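Lab notebook, bench 4. We co-purified these components, and the gel suggests they stay together. Before we commit to crystallization screens, I want a quick structural picture of the whole thing.
Request: model the full complex, all chains together.
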Amino acid sequence: MTQTDFTHDASATSWVEGAVGHPDFPVQNLPLGVFSVGDSPPRGGIAIGDYILDLPAVAMLMEDPAEDAALTANAPVLNALFAGGRATITALRQAVFGLLTDESNRAKVEPHLHRAADCKLHLPFFIHDYTDFYTGIHHAMNIGSLFRPDNPLLPNYKYVPIGYHGRSSSIRASGVDVKRPTGQTKPAEDGGMPGFGPSTRLDYELEMAIWVGQGNELGEPISIGDAEQHIAGISILNDWSARDLQAWEYQPLGPFLAKNFHSSVSPWVVTMDALVPFRTAQMPRPEGDPAPLPYLLDEGDQAHGAFGITMEVLITTPKMREAGDAPHRLSRGPMTAMYWTAAQLLAHHTVGGCNLQPGDLLGTGTLTSGEEGGEGSLIELTEGGKKNITLPNGETRKFLENGDEVIMTAYAEKDGFARIGLGECRATIKG
Amino acid sequence: MTQTDFTHDASATSWVEGAVGHPDFPVQNLPLGVFSVGDSPPRGGIAIGDYILDLPAVAMLMEDPAEDAALTANAPVLNALFAGGRATITALRQAVFGLLTDESNRAKVEPHLHRAADCKLHLPFFIHDYTDFYTGIHHAMNIGSLFRPDNPLLPNYKYVPIGYHGRSSSIRASGVDVKRPTGQTKPAEDGGMPGFGPSTRLDYELEMAIWVGQGNELGEPISIGDAEQHIAGISILNDWSARDLQAWEYQPLGPFLAKNFHSSVSPWVVTMDALVPFRTAQMPRPEGDPAPLPYLLDEGDQAHGAFGITMEVLITTPKMREAGDAPHRLSRGPMTAMYWTAAQLLAHHTVGGCNLQPGDLLGTGTLTSGEEGGEGSLIELTEGGKKNITLPNGETRKFLENGDEVIMTAYAEKDGFARIGLGECRATIKG
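Here is the predicted assembly.
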């Protein structure tokens, strides 16, 4: 958990084939997830190169507390494992690092490695509650300009980490198709009848998923200084949005059917330990912005609370896949485009007494970088559907068509450290 | 499930002491809940008079499917029982009715009756997702006038059953104290700093809880005609609200910390079967209001979809309790004050593909009757905190003080039928 954590050593190598130099999952990463092979029950695993290590199967090769942790991973979700707290995850990660770097373990461990291509990946947690924040200030400005041209950024934005409760039941792991939602849309004229039918303005939203590890009791807030200890890790979140439904329904209580038909999340939980080398200073507040209120203020958090991670959105259309074209990148931007840090989100969420539980999912909100090419949604790229995007094969898009596949990726790079990645969050639109 | 259901016979009597003429729980009601006695594990029970029948303990006195249902109630929550569908609940209810009315069963059944006063009541379901609607049009008008004087009822209100996702983790059964939340409040002047501290405008909201029985698959909406079959039953919900936090945080994505610190729900699930005699016509739409869109329109639902139930809110203060004063009634009004029926709420919630699951909780929103004395919240009774309420002992209130206890009750009365009640939802404010 410090800069001297031996798992961050860029020169460390794993004996697992293809792990060295793997763009996402070298031995310096070791993200946790839930996998199954064939008809076997889903259970906890760790990604290493193009393989998945079966955690419960290698438990007896470790010592407590790592052994106990690996046995706790013998479950269809990782809630109990992460409820054990950060020290447990650290012990497990360091033990696995040892197994995968020391050649002498190879004979015992190798039988418990599965090719990722042969596995099915599941949601890593049972998600009781899902909260979506709105930390991307550039996104908030862009969306605000479309929905409220005269008043894009509301007066509370720079004080309150704005968030709302989302729908847990419709969250699915990467790879599950997304059915285009149906609903009401704004009447064409004042006093006319609303429209009704499949959404014609279906969009993605590029977000980071923050997973809660240890929770808190009802009525007992988590302080900003303690908040990091309650974070299990991060993944990529695509909070699909039906913009036409949203525009009609969202006042006064926020988005509902525009969001609750599906959310997709990448299956690997990249741990806070793996991310230590890539923590960086919070986005500087623009000149004249107020300082965070005391319950959101922490020197260490302001200095190191952000994630130095690059995110990307890519698309393939049915025609592109037929022609064998590579996915086309729609945007790329830094995860530091957050007005609030993850710790600030936890501190705010609980300050009134609300209890978080292990496996709760906090979305950051759409992360738009503020620079050309860093838009985190189509509604921003197409200026509210007024402008076409032209793909390399000449096809155009304003919003998503049936058959389109959206692929989100994220990775961290820094001199002196091995690059690590979050993997992919991908899904295809069905009519 | 029809008017000839023998469990609705007003002349039926139970051998259980005090059950005949019980204001809430005569044998014609038989609501389900989860109880425990001393250190025994929580399990399913049925309220009869001032007693609770231990369902698993009497399972062997019934025949399938009732026996199987009673065994399924041998669990800390009733999700699995209600997931079995309405026919299962009907069979169980009718078998229990037989046990409790036929004197010949007394010797075998009586040992499995526990005095309610000796029992602890728990949340009846594991609540994965909680949705709160806004069906009380009088409440919407009143609140709208306070938050948006120029625009109280937004143009979507009469087309879209407005709702938003709430927080599941902080829902507690009746009787659990409510800790006053802390949070940010609106700056006193434009450009000033927000306030921060314990809420000074803490309020209750009188709502009905609609419990989901059988769910639906993601992407497969529930039609308005089928919706009633997916409802397990109803309870009373108090959706506590911090009005000062709400006013500052709620735009643009809806209420968050203003609501997520606690919600209280009464422990007894009054089944759809018990409610059959009290179903009534939907509130007539005011002249000139649009008809519901086709996916929300069903002749049977418009004719019988509402609940002929009266709800009440009472308060006691520490001084009143010290003096032995009776609770003071703050309001009374009909549950028919809903612009949308329960079936319309389910049809709307799922029309975009969102999946409901057994035990999901749908709140109706605050039910204000539209007549003097029928206000469902203090912010309405005190006109936004401008006016005092004077209690019988001379104390005054604008919002809730520490030590105040709020008690909500509800009951259904109709000529030719036994009165039934929902029991109580009560909780005390702690500082």
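Residues 305 and 342 of chain A are 7 Å apart (CA to CA). Worth comparing against the SEC data before the next meeting. The longest helix of chain A spans residues 86-101.
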